[in-house]
Amino acid sequence: MAGVRCTDHERCPGRAAFDWPACPSCGGTVEPAEFGPGGTVWSSTVVRIQVPGRTPPYALAYVDLDDGPRVLAHTAEQQPVGSRVRLLGPSTRHLMGHPCDGDDGDVRAEPSP
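The chain above was modelled as a monomer; its predicted structure follows.
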């Protein structure tokens, strides 16, 4: 996953999963960085309410990427906290079982061996 990290590596742990113009922690300068694909599930849930563009139920997990930021990802089912997962490309209905109504570009993750 492409993102940015603070250029002051020694004093600031700032990282972001998106192209931010400044460090999200200290406001300093940033440089391009790649994170993942491995990470640890920090939290996970199953959403059972209808929202536009989604067919419930679908699972989501916050994933702490190895040496990177925390990201929200779609998963095929609820993942145990502390389990290892691997980020994949954008979510698609046929690959994830039924997390959304078609290709939506969202990050998705699967259990890591």
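DSSP finds one helix and eight strands in the chain.
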